[in-house]
Amino acid sequence: MESTGEMVSLPVLLESNYRASTIPYRFPSDNPKKPTPTELSWINLFSNSIPSFRKRAESDDTVSDAPAKAEKFAQRYTEILEDLKKDPESHGGPPDCILLCQLREQVLREVGFRDIFKKVKDEENAKAISLFEDVVRLNDAIQDEAERVENLIRGIFAGNIFDLGSAQLAELFAKDGMSFQASCQNLVPRPWVIDDLDKFISKWGRRSWKKAVIFVDNSGADVILGILPFARELLRHGVQ
C-alpha cells in the first residue's frame, strides 16, 4: 500500500546542497531554447530504449490489452522526446536524466502500466537471494578490515552495474540471466574516475558514524548483494 502523505525533502540533503544529478547538462551561457549536445545525447539514449520498454510492456500479463497500450506508450513518449529536442523547456525541462525517467514513468502509468519490470525484478531478486549467503560468507572470511571494506564497496558497484533502465543490459538479462561474480570480476581497476576509497576506509577505521541512511533501489542485485552486506557490516560496527 502506498503512502498518501506529502513528500518532503530530507533535511540533511537540503543542508548539504545535495543535487541528485551532477552531470553538467547545460551552462548559464547556453541558449534556453536550444538543447545542448549533452541533453541531446541523453534524449537519444532514452529514445533508443523505447523499443525495449515497449516489448517489456507488451508482455505485462497484468494489464488488459497490453500490446495496444504499449504501442500508445511508445508513440506518446517518442512525441515528448521530439518536443524536448525542439524546445528543451517543454514538459518541465530543460531535460536531465531524472526528468526523462519521470516522464517515461508518467506515460507508462497514464496508459495503464504500473510496473513493467515487476516480473523481471522478481526473477532477479530470486537469483540474487540464492547468491546472498555465499557473498556474505566471502566477506566474513576476509580478516583484514580494509580489504573487507573494499570488497564490500566493490560489491555495491558490481550490483549497481546491472541496471534494467539500460536497454542493452535489459536484453542481456533476458538472454543470459544475471551473474554477480562476473560483474565483480569486470570492474575496472583502481584508481576509479572518482576514487575516495582510501579516505573512506581511513574514516571507517575511526568508527566515525553513529547512524546511517542508505538510499537503495527497490529490488535486484544492487540492494540484495551490494547494499545488504554493506548495511550488515555497518550494524556489526554498532551503526544504527
Automatic annotation (TrEMBL):
It comes from the Eukaryota. Keywords: Hydrolase, Manganese, Metal-binding, Nickel. GO terms for molecular function: ATP binding; hydrolase activity; metal ion binding. GO terms for cellular component: cytosol; nucleus. Its cofactor is Mn(2+); Ni(2+). The keyword Protein biosynthesis does not apply. Residues 47-238 form the Damage-control phosphatase ARMT1-like metal-binding domain. One of its GO terms (biological process) is coenzyme A biosynthetic process. PANTHER family: 4'-PHOSPHOPANTETHEINE PHOSPHATASE, PANTOTHENATE KINASE. This is Damage-control phosphatase ARMT1-like metal-binding domain-containing protein. It comes from Erythranthe guttata (Yellow monkey flower). The lineage of its organism: Eukaryota, Viridiplantae, Streptophyta, Embryophyta, Tracheophyta.
